[in-house]
Structures are given as structure tokens and as C-alpha cells.
């Protein structure tokens, strides 16, 4: 079962993810700043021969930041952690062979102790389809990475060689979903996975502050459950004010769904809301 995490639970679950890893850890985060506690946990995991891959964004640092960045790289290099860089990276996703965490939380201590964060934990045993989808996307992200300049100096490694806790065989021609925005895909070629697609949309709403939607035309509207229609559609609806009139979209996720003014959420979003 997918579990919603607040700030303290994001940090706690990340610690458990590292402590309980048996074969593999993958950490994707924009910033190369590891909290002392997390570093110690990674060091302990490495002593158990757990493969650790860290992917981060290699921004051009200031002189002060450059010193800290080099210190971090040297510390990670001492553990023989595979570090890779990817421009424009903004995702935060952490995974081992049995669970994954998607969250707004970065790896550094200030984020874990001072910011208000939100995330979800996905267990492979209970949500294998969603876990596999996350792992597959992480593999695709890895294909576009470059080795860190300080990473594995004595190695011939040229791209992340993450392990295979699940049987996935991504094509070398695949790209991350973010790189496919401008590609035209015929409807018949779109994978049919409405449950996961809907869940990931809801997750984006919670973590990344995505917009809400007019239940009649689907355009974005303000976050107000008492106003699930845009101004134009509301003017049309106000003629009769039939709260049970069939509409076309979910107010929260924006997916096609049978909704009404009185019940503007699709079944999945409504169930998710009730669990809170």
C-alpha cells in the first residue's frame, strides 16, 4: 500500500531505505549535499557490499560552494559510491530493491530538519506494478547521465550500471518521459495503465502543487472545492444550477471521469482523500 509521508516520515523512511537495503541503493537528487547521518548510513551499507548510485545536478558553484562540493565528492569517493551528473535534474527519488520514495525532500540536513516536505513510499511487495514503473523511469534517467569528474577515477565506467532487482529490459532508444513532450504518440500506442497514471497525477498535485481542473472543460482553475468550474462553464451551469448534472473531468487530477458539481472528484481521488 502506498503511504503518504510528512517531513519527519520522509527522513525516517529514507533512513530505513538505506539501512534495510540488501543489494542496491539509487539516490536521485539535484544537490550533492549529504547529511552526516545519511553519510554514516551509506558507509554502513557499503560495508555490507550494497551497490550505491547517486545522481545529482552539477551546477556551477560559487567559490564557497565549490569547496563544500569538493569535500562531499571526496567523502563519497572514499566510499567508492558511483556518482553521476545530469543537467536540469530536479527530481528527488530514492530506491532500494524493495521500496521507493518519491518526495520533495533533498538529501541535505537543512531540508530534512527545517523544510516542510511531502512524499510517498511505495513497497515493491505490495505495489509491484507502480514500483516497476518508477524503477523503469529511473533506469531511463540513468542513460542520460555522465560520470562525475571525481567518481571512480580508476574505473572504465561510462554510465550508471545499476543493478537488476526486477526483470526490466529498457531499450537503448528510450528516453525519460520528460524528453518526450514534443513527440506525437498515436492513441493506440499509449500504454493503458489508468490506475498508475491517475495515482501519479494525484501525487504531482500533492508534492509539486499542480493546478486543479474545471470538471466540464478540463482547464485549470483555482484550488477551491466550492468552485469546480471555470468562469465560462460556471455561467452556463448557473442557468439551471443542477448539481447532479453529468460533467466530464475530475477536479483534482484532471482525468476524464464521470463527475458532477456535487461530486467533483473521480473515484480514485475521492478514495485517496477519504484515506486522509
Give a topology summary:
Layout: E1 3-5, H1 7-19, E2 24-28, H2 36-47, E3 51-56, H3 63-78, E4 82-85, E5 93-96, E6 99-103, H4 109-114, E7 119-123, H5 128-142, E8 146-147, H6 194-208, E9 212-213, E10 220-221, H7 231-237, E11 247-249, E12 256-259, H8 267-275
Parallel strand pairs: 2-3, 3-4
Antiparallel strand pairs: 1-7, 2-5, 4-8, 5-6, 6-7, 9-10, 11-12
Write up what this structure looks like.
There is one protein chain. This protein has 276 residues and is α+β, with helices and mostly antiparallel strands. It has two domains: 3-180, Endonuclease Chain A (Endonuclease, Chain A, 2-Layer Sandwich), CATH 3.30.870.10; 189-275, no CATH class. The chain has helices at residues 7-19, 36-47, 63-78, 109-114, 128-142, 194-208, 231-237, 267-275, and strands at 3-5, 24-28, 51-56, 82-85, 93-96, 99-103, 119-123, 146-147, 212-213, 220-221, 247-249, 256-259. The strands form three sheets. Strands 1-7-6-5-2-3-4-8 form an eight-stranded mixed beta sheet, with helices on both faces. It has a two-stranded antiparallel sheet with strand order 9-10. Helix 2 links the parallel strand 2 and strand 3. Mean pLDDT is 75; it is low at 152-198 and 205-209.
Amino acid at each position: 500500500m502506498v503511504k503518504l509521508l510528512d517531513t519527519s516520515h520522509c527522513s525516517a523512511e529514507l533512513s530505513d531505505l538505506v539501512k534495510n537495503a540488501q543489494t542496491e541503493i539509487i539516490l536521485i537528487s539535484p544537490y550533492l549535499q549529504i547529511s552526516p547521518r545519511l553519510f554514516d548510513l551509506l558507509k554502513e551499507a557499503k560495508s555490507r557490499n550494497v551497490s550505491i548510485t547517486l545522481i545529482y545536478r552539477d551546477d556551477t558553484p560559487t567559490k564557497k560552494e565549490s569547496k563544500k562540493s569538493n569535500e562531499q565528492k571526496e567523502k563519497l569517493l572514499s566510499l567508492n559510491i558511483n556518482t553521476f551528473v545530469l543537467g536540469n535534474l530536479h527530481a528527488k527519488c530514492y530506491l532500494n530493491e524493495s521500496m521507493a520514495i518519491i518526495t520533495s525532500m533533498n538529501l541535505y540536513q537543512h531540508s530534512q530538519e527545517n523544510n516542510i516536505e511531502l512524499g510517498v513510499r511505495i513497497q515493491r511487495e505490495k505495489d509491484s506494478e507502480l514500483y516497476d514503473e518508477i524503477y523503469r523511469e529511473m533506469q531511463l534517467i540513468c542513460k542520460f547521465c555522465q560520470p562525475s569528474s571525481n567518481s571512480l577515477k580508476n574505473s572504465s565506467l561510462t554510465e550508471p550500471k545499476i543493478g537488476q532487482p526486477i526483470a526490466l529490459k529498457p531499450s537503448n532508444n528510450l528516453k525519460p518521459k520528460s524528453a518526450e513532450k514534443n513527440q506525437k504518440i498515436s492513441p493506440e500506442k499509449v500504454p493503458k495503465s489508468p490506475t498508475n497514471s491517475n495515482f501519479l497525477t494525484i501525487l504531482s498535485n500533492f508534492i509539486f502543487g499542480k493546478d486543479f481542473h474545471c470538471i466540464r472543460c478540463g482547464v485549470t482553475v483555482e484550488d477551491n472545492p466550492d468552485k469546480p468550474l471555470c468562469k465560462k462553464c460556471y455561467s452556463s451551469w448557473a442557468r439551471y444550477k443542477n448539481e447532479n448534472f453529468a460533467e466530464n473531468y475530475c477536479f483534482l487530477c484532471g482525468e476524464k471521469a464521470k463527475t458532477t458539481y456535487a461530486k467533483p472528484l473521480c473515484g480514485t481521488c475521492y478514495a485517496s482523500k477519504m484515506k486522509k
